[in-house]
C-alpha cells in the first residue's frame, strides 16, 4: 500500500492512514482563522487549575507498541511521547512558527545550510541526571543513522553532520533549508539520555510527566514530574490513557463519564454526540485533503482549459457538507491552507461556476465523456463525492463518467498511474515539504504530472530563503501556479474531530497536528 | 478463528459425533434399563473392561491433534505471507523509507526464503520457544501468558454462568414443554442469539454504563487491579457472552432430553411407577448427555477463541485483540503463536467432548 506521508515524521505520520481518514472533520480552527461555530467559549479566559486525574480514551494503540520513540507511529504513542519527553523545538499552536524548547535559540548561516542551536543547560532527565549537548547529539545521530529504523530517518537525511561546537549544537545540511527548526519538532526526535542508545524504551525523558506503568495497547499511566523545568504545562496530577480502538466504545466511554477525552470522532456521529449535555466537540483544522487529480501531461488533461473547466465545475461546499458533514474547510486547488506557516493570504476562492466551466470547456475543444476513476479507499466517501461532482459538472455541460475501481490495488494500479482519479494527501510540516513531495518535477509522487521547471526553481530558491516576506511571496507564486495551471482539484481539507468532557478546560486548537499536536494532556486542566 | 458472530461456535453441531446420539439412544437404550443397575453402572464397568481400547483411542486422537496443529501452523504461516505488505513496510507505515525497510528486513531475516524461515520457527516452537515479537521485541510466550490469562478469566466466568444456566433452563423448558415458560425461554434466548454480539454489547453499554451508570466501562483490566475490581469490569462482557452462547446449549439440552423422554424405555419406567426426577436422573440424563457435552465444548471453545468482537467492543485486553494487533503489523511470531494456541484450544476441547461422550455412552467405543 502506498503512503503519502512517508517522508514526514510530523504531520499525518502520527496517524494511521485509515484511522486518519476515519475521523476527520472540523469546524475550522480557532477564532483567529474564522469559520468556527462551536468554540469552547470561556475556556480560554480561565486561569489553569492544578490537580486531578485525567483519563483519555484513544484510538491508535496496539499490543505491538513499544516505547522507543524511533518506532512511534500511532496516536497513543504520539501523545505518550509528548508526556515523558521533549523535542529540541516546538511549534506555535496558532502560527506554526518554531518555538524554543530544549534548544533555547538558534541561528542559521547566510545560506541556511549551517545551523547553530543553543541548548538549555538547566534541564534534568526524570532519573535526576543532567541533560547535556552530548545527549542531544546522540539522539539526533541515532535517528539519522543509515541503519536506523526511525520514523524520522527521512527527515534527517538532509543533515550532513551533527557536532558539538563549544557547547552548542551545530547541524550542517547538504543544502540550505530555512525550515530546519520545524523539522526538529518531529515527535520521534525526543531527547533521551545518550540518545537512547543504551535503553531506547526507558521513557526516561525531560517531559512534564513520568511514566508509572505501560501495557502496550491497553493502558499507560503517568504522574506529574514535580521538578519539571517549565511551569506553563502539566496541570493535572496524573494521567491515564486507555487504548480504545472501537469508535462506538470511545463515544460510550466519554458519554458515560468514564474518560475525559477521546480522539477520532466519526463525522457521521458527531451530531449525535453533540446532544450529550456533558460533552464538547473539539475540532481543529488539519492539513490533510481530499483530491481529484489530473495528469497535466496526458491527453485530454494536457489542455489547461479543460483542467480549468473541471476545476470550475465542482461544487465544493456541497461535497464538504455531504461527505464530511460540514466538518472541514473548502479547498482552493493548491495543497496549502491556513494551518501552514507563511500561508499566502488573499488568493481568491475558486467557486462552483457552471458558466465559466462551460466557457473553458468549449474553449478546450474537448468533447465526449471524461473518465474519472475512484474507489472507497481513496478517501471515505470518495465514490459519493465523485457522483456529486458528476452531477454538478453535468449542469455545465461536461460529462464525467465515474468508474469505481476495486479497493485492492487502487494505490498501485490507479493512483499515480491513471490520468484522472481520486486520492487523498496527509499534510506535511512545511509548505516546502508538501510541494517537494508532490509538485516538484522529479518527485516520485508527483501525481498530477506537474512538470514545470520555473516552479521547481522557485521551490528550491524558497527553501533556502531566510527573509520571510520574500519567502511568503514565493509561496504565493507557487500556489497560484498550482491553482491556475496545475492538475489538482482540491475541494476540501478534512479536520481533526475530538471530543472532551466539559470538565476539560484549556484545550488548545493547535494547527500542527491532531490532539493539540499531541500536547493535549500537558496543556489541559480539569475543572471539577 | 477470530470469527465474528455467534454462529461461529454454535453453527456446527452436526459435525460433532454426538449430534446423532439421541436417535440411536432410543433403540440402544433399552438394555441399560433391563439390566436394572442402570446406565451409570454399565458405563463404569465398561471403563474397566475396555481400558486399553479407550486409551488407544485417546492416543489416536492426540496424535491426530498434533498433526492438525502442524497443518494449522502451515496455513497460518502461508496466510500471513499471502497478505499484501510484509512486517517492515506495514510496521513503518507512513514514515517508511526504503532504507529503513531494508534495515528491518535484514534484521529479522525477512530476506531469507519462506521455507527456511518456517523451519527455523517450527524448530523453536516444538521446544516451546515462540521467539520474540518483531514489533515490541518482547518474549512472545510472556506476552501471551498475560493475554491468555485475561481471555481465560473472561471465558471462565462466562462459562460458569452460562453452562449451568443453559442446562437448567433447558430442563425447565422440558418440564414446561410447549407451555408459557418454555416459549418465553425459547423466544428470549433465540432473540439473544439472533442479535450480533457487538449489538448486544452496545445495548448493554448504553443501558448499564451510559444511562444508568452502574456498570464499569471500558472493561479494561490491568495488573494493579484487585480481583473484585476485575469482576466488576468484566460484568458486561460476561453478560454479553452468556446471552450469545446460552440459546444454543439450552436448546440442545432441551432437544436431547425431549427425544430421550419420548423413548419407549422412559415410558416403561413411567409405567413402572418411578418418580419423574428418578427417570430424568437415572435413565434419561445419561443418554442425553453426549450431545449436550459436545455443544458445551463447542461453546467453551468459542468463549476462548471467538470473542474478538466482544473484546474490541468492551476494550478488553484478551488474546483475540492481541492477535488482531499482530496481524495488522504482520508480526509473524505473535500471529503464529496465537493461532496455534487458538487451534489447540479448539482441538483439545473437541477431543475432550468426544472422549466424554464415549465415556458416557459405551456403544460409541465400538464403531461399526
Topology, element by element:
The complex is a heterodimer of chains A (528) and B (368).
Chain A: H1 17-22, E1 53-58, H2 75-84, E2 89-91, E3 98-100, E4 103-108, E5 114-119, H3 133-144, H4 153-156, E6 159-165, E7 168-173, H5 180-183, E8 209-215, E9 219-224, E10 238-243, H6 247-255, E11 261-262, H7 267-274, E12 279-294, H8 304-312, H9 316-323, E13 328-330, H10 354-364, E14 370-374, H11 382-394, E15 400-404, H12 410-414, E16 420-425, H13 431-438, H14 453-463, H15 468-485, E17 488-501, E18 504-505, H16 514-517, H17 520-523, E19 525-526
Chain B: H1 21-34, H2 38-49, H3 51-82, H4 87-92, H5 98-108, H6 114-126, H7 140-175, H8 180-194, H9 197-211, H10 227-233, H11 235-261, H12 264-272, H13 276-305, H14 308-314, H15 319-328, H16 332-360
Helix pairs in contact in B: 1-11, 1-13, 3-16, 7-8, 7-11, 7-13, 8-11, 9-11, 9-14, 11-13, 12-13, 13-16, 14-15, 15-16
Mean pLDDT across residues of chain A:
87
Q: What count of helical segments of chain B does DSSP give? A: 16
Give me the Rg of chain B, rounded. Answer: 24 Å
Radius of gyration of chain A: 23 Å
Uncertain segments of chain B:
1-47
Number of strands of chain A: 19
| Span between termini of chain A | 46 Å
Using the alpha-carbon principal axes, give the shape of chain A: globular
Strand content of chain B: under 5%
* Helix/strand/pairing category of chain A: alpha+beta
Distance between the termini of chain B: 33 Å
Work out the strand percent of chain A: 15-25%
Biggest interface in this structure?
A: A-B, 54 and 47 residues
Shape of chain B: globular
Biggest beta sheet attributes of chain A: 9 strands, mixed
Helix content of chain A: 25-40%
Amino acid at each position: 500500500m502506498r503512503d503519502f506521508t512517508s517522508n514526514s515524521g510530523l504531520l499525518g505520520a502520527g496517524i494511521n492512514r485509515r484511522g486518519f481518514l476515519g475521523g476527520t472533520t472540523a469546524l475550522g480552527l480557532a477564532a483567529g482563522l474564522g469559520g468556527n461555530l462551536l468554540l469552547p467559549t470561556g475556556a480560554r479566559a480561565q486561569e489553569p487549575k492544578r490537580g486531578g486525574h485525567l483519563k483519555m480514551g484513544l484510538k491508535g494503540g496496539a499490543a505491538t507498541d513499544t516505547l522507543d520513540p524511533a518506532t512511534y507511529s500511532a496516536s497513543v504513542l504520539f501523545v505518550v511521547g509528548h508526556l515523558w519527553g521533549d523535542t529540541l523545538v516546538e511549534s506555535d499552536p496558532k502560527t506554526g512558527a518554531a518555538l524554543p524548547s530544549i534548544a533555547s535559540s538558534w541561528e542559521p548561516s547566510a545560506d541556511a545550510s549551517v545551523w547553530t542551536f543553543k541548548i538549555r543547560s538547566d534541564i534534568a532527565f526524570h532519573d535526576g541526571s543532567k541533560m547535556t549537548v552530548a545527549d542531544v547529539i546522540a539522539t539526533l545521530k541515532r535517528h539519522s543513522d543509515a541503519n536506523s529504523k526511525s520514523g524520522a530517518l527521512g527527515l534527517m537525511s538532509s543533515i550532513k553532520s551533527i557536532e558539538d561546537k563549544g557547547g552548542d549544537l551545530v547541524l550542517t545540511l547538504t543544502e540550505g533549508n530555512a525550515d530546519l527548526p520545524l523539522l526538529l519538532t518531529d515527535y520521534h526526535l525526543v531527547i533521551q539520555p545518550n540518545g537512547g542508545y543504551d535503553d531506547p524504551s526507558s521513557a526516561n525523558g525531560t517531559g512534564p510527566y513520568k511514566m508509572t506503568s505501560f501495557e502496550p495497547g491497553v493502558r499507560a499511566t503517568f504522574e506529574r514530574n514535580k521538578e519539571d523545568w517549565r511551569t506553563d504545562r502539566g496541570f493535572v496530577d496524573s494521567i491515564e490513557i486507555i487504548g480504545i480502538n472501537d469508535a462506538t466504545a470511545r463515544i460510550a466511554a466519554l458519554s458515560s463519564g468514564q474518560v475525559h477525552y477521546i480522539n477520532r470522532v466519526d463525522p457521521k456521529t458527531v451530531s449525535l454526540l453533540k446532544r450529550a449535555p456533558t460533552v464538547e466537540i473539539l475540532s481543529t483544522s488539519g492539513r490533510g485533503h481530499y483530491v481529484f487529480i489530473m495528469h497535466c501531461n496526458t491527453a485530454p488533461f494536457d489542455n489547461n482549459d479543460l483542467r480549468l473547466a473541471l476545476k470550475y465545475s465542482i461544487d465544493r461546499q456541497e461535497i464538504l457538507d455531504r461527505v464530511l458533514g460540514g466538518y472541514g474547510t473548502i479547498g482552493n486547488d493548491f495543497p496549502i491552507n491556513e494551518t501552514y506557516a507563511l500561508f499566502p493570504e488573499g488568493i481568491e476562492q475558486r467557486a462552483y461556476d457552471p458558466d465559466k466551466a462551460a466557457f473553458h470547456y468549449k474553449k478546450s475543444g474537448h468533447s465526449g465523456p471524461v473518465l474519472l476513476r475512484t474507489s472507497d479507499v481513496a478517501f471515505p466517501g470518495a465514490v459519493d463525492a465523485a457522483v456529486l461532482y458528476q452531477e454538478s459538472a453535468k449542469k455545465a455541460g461536461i460529462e464525467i463518467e465515474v468508474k469505481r475501481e476495486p479497493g485492492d490495488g487502487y494505490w498501485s494500479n490507479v493512483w499515480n498511474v491513471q490520468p484522472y482519479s481520486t486520492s487523498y494527501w496527509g499534510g506535511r510540516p512545511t509548505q516546502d515539504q508538501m510541494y517537494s513531495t508532490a509538485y516538484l518535477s522529479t518527485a516520485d509522487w508527483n501525481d498530477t504530472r506537474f512538470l514545470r521547471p520555473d516552479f521547481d526553481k522557485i521551490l528550491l530558491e524558497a527553501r533556502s530563503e531566510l527573509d520571510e516576506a520574500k519567502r511568503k511571496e514565493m509561496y504565493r507564486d507557487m500556489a497560484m501556479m498550482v491553482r491556475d495551471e496545475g492538475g489538482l482539484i482540491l475541494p476540501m481539507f478534512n479536520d481533526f474531530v475530538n471530543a472532551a468532557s466539559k470538565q476539560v478546560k484549556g484545550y488548545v486548537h493547535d494547527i500542527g497536528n491532531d490532539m493539540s499536536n499531541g500536547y493535549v494532556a500537558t496543556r489541559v486542566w480539569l475543572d471539577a | 478463528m477470530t470469527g465474528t458472530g455467534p454462529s461461529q461456535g454454535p453453527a456446527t453441531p452436526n459435525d460433532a459425533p454426538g449430534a446423532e446420539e439421541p436417535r440411536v439412544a432410543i433403540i440402544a437404550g433399552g438394555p441399560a434399563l433391563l439390566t436394572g443397575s442402570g446406565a451409570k453402572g454399565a458405563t463404569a464397568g465398561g471403563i474397566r473392561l475396555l481400558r486399553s481400547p479407550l486409551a488407544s483411542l485417546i492416543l489416536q486422537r492426540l496424535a491426530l491433534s498434533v498433526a492438525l496443529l502442524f497443518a494449522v501452523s502451515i496455513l497460518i504461516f502461508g496466510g500471513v505471507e499471502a497478505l499484501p505488505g510484509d512486517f517492515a513496510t506495514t510496521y513503518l507505515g507512513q514514515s517508511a523509507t526504503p532504507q529503513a525497510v531494508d534495515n528491518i528486513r535484514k534484521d529479522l531475516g525477512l530476506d531469507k526464503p519462506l521455507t527456511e524461515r518456517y523451519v527455523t520457527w517450527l524448530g523453536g516452537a516444538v521446544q516451546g520457544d515462540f521467539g520474540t515479537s518483531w514489533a515490541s521485541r518482547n518474549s512472545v510466550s510472556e506476552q501471551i501468558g498475560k493475554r491468555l490469562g485475561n481471555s481465560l478469566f473472561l471465558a471462565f466466568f462466562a462459562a460458569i454462568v452460562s453452562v449451568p444456566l443453559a442446562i437448567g433452563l433447558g430442563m425447565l423448558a422440558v418440564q414446561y414443554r410447549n407451555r408459557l415458560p418454555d416459549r418465553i425461554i425459547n423466544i428470549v434466548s433465540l432473540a439473544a442469539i439472533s442479535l450480533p454480539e457487538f449489538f448486544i454489547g452496545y445495548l448493554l453499554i448504553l443501558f448499564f454504563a451510559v444511562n444508568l451508570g452502574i456498570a464499569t466501562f471500558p472493561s479494561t483490566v490491568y495488573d494493579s487491579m484487585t480481583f473484585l475490581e476485575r469482576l466488576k469490569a468484566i460484568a458486561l462482557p460476561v453478560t454479553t457472552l452468556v446471552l450469545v452462547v446460552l440459546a444454543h446449549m439450552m436448546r440442545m439440552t432441551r432437544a436431547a432430553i425431549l427425544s430421550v423422554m419420548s423413548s419407549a424405555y422412559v415410558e416403561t419406567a413411567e409405567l413402572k411407577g418411578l418418580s419423574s426426577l428418578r427417570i430424568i436422573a437415572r435413565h434419561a440424563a445419561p443418554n442425553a448427555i453426549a450431545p449436550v457435552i459436545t455443544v458445551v465444548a463447542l461453546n467453551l471453545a468459542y468463549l476462548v477463541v471467538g470473542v474478538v468482537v466482544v473484546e474490541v467492543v468492551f476494550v478488553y485486553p484478551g488474546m483475540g485483540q492481541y492477535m488482531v494487533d499482530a496481524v495488522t503489523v504482520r508480526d509473524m511470531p505473535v500471529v503464529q503463536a496465537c493461532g496455534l494456541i487458538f487451534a489447540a484450544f479448539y482441538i483439545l476441547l473437541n477431543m475432550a467432548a468426544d472422549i466424554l461422550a464415549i465415556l458416557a455412552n459405551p456403544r460409541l467405543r465400538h464403531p461399526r
